[in-house]
Amino acid sequence: MKYYVGIDLGGTNIVAGVVDENYNIVAKASTKTNCPRPEREIAADMAKMALNAVNNAGLTIDDIEWVGIGTPGIANSETGIIEYSNNLGFKNTPMVKYIKEIIDKPVFIENDANAAAYGEFVAGAAKGARNAVCITLGTGVGGGIIIDGKIYSGSNFAGAEIGHTVVQVDGAQCSCGRKGCFEAYSSATGLIRMTKEAMEQFPDSIMNRMAEEKGKVTARTSFDAMRAGDKYAQGVVDTYIKYLAAGITNTINIFQPDVLCIGGGVCNEGDPLLLPVKALVKDEVYTRNSEKNTEIVIAKLGNDAGIIGAAFLGRANSK
Ligand code: BMX
Ligand code: ZN
Questions:
Q1: Same structural domain for residues 48 and 147?
Q2: Are residues 191 and 84 both part of a single domain?
Q3: Residue 157: exposed, middle, or buried by beta-carbon count in 10 A (0-12, 13-18, 19+)?
Q4: Which of 12, 214, 298, 304 is most buried, most CB within 10 Å of its CB?
Q5: What is the CA(302)–ligand 1 centre distance, in A?
Q6: Is the CB of 136 under 6 A from ligand 1?
Q7: What confidence tens digit (pLDDT) does each residue in 151-160 have?
Q8: Does residue 235 share a domain with residue 289?
């Protein structure tokens, strides 16, 4: 059996997993990212989590073929440098070099959403597809594009930033500096912002009551309140779905992939999210009268997609 390590570096957590050749995660280890802090410290913790995961799997580092890393931001897979990552505070961080100083194995790096898309492609909802696009609805909206079985990241490794295409000119401020980005509306962060706006406008809504009980507003508040019969929450969900469908339709119109998979925390809502999105896309997509249309599916691997995809980056890079 061959084993690989995948590391998912996020703004909140560092998670490392040992993945076997059948795409099963056999052990994991994780710690808080605790950023901002010096990049070398973060790298040291990433290496430590990789080694802990290997240990938890009952293996030694000699049993591992390579280490792959998924990171938010611009990851240059040729130089191994994270050129830019605003939420981690990285600028030209030589991450592959740092990890190799601690773990003497081949080390590969990719954008986190690209890695997650690759994970879904090798072992999840996009398995068997030739062309696939995955978007993740998390802190941001991540985008990963697989064309002919390969990760497409443009000529400068900054491609596939689907989250930073505009769905509303002069709309809500995005963390990238632009206004009205897909991410500003369809991320969990965007959903929370829209929920808070509606709560201010309708202080008697069930959303307010639920948020008070929980002590905070989350990406689930509007969906939960909608299920409890709140019409204002229904309005927030409808708006969220409208923007999500617009962003997905834009993406399908460009790529026309076999599969478009949606991952990230918001996806846990399942059918109440997926079905209306599918219906809106179906009405609006350029190919609505065609026989063959992109299949829209919920990601299968959940939070593990990034780890599994990162673990197989050695393969993605060799083809
Ligand atoms: C942002 C951008 C993407 C990333 C996406 C998903 C940064 C730091 N991040 O759009 O590179 O793929 O978020 O990130 O520029 P997540 O934190 O939601 O997983
Ligand atoms: Zn943006």
A1: no
A2: no
A3: buried
A4: 304
A5: 16
A6: yes
A7: 999 999 999 9
A8: yes
Q: Which atom of ligand 1 is nearest to the CA of 306?
A: 19
253 lies in the same domain as 141: yes
Q: Indicate whether 106 and 192 sit together in one domain.
A: no
CA of 222 to the centre of ligand 1 (A): 23
Domain co-membership, 245 together with 308 = no
In the chain, the number of structural domains is: 2
Residue with tokens 């507003």: 217
Q: Is the pLDDT of residue 84 over 50?
A: yes
What digits encode the pLDDT tens for the residues 7-39? 999 989 999 999 999 999 999 999 999 999 999
Q: Is the pLDDT score of 276 beyond 90?
A: yes
Residue 224's contacts (CB-CB under 8 Å, 6 or more residues apart) are 210, 233
Instruction: List the CATH number of the domain containing 21.
Output: 3.30.420.40
Same domain? 137 vs 99: no
Q: How confident is the model at residue 87 (pLDDT cuts 50, 70, 90)?
A: confident
Report the chain's terminal Cα–Cα distance, integer Å.
Answer: 21
Structure tokens at 118: 């690759």
Q: What angle do CA 41, 47, 50 make, to 5 degrees?
A: 145
Quick one: average pLDDT of 120-135?
98
Q: Report pLDDT for 316.
A: 86
pLDDT average, residue stretch 37-52: 97
137 CA: nearest ligand 1 atom: 18
291: tokens are 């026989």
Range of the domain at 117: 3-121+304-318
The predicted pLDDT at position 319 comes to 47
Mutate to test the pocket of ligand 1, among 93, 137, 141 (most ligand atoms within 8 A of CB): 141
Q: Are residues 159 and 224 in the same domain?
A: yes
- Note the Cα 177 to chain centre separation in Å: 20
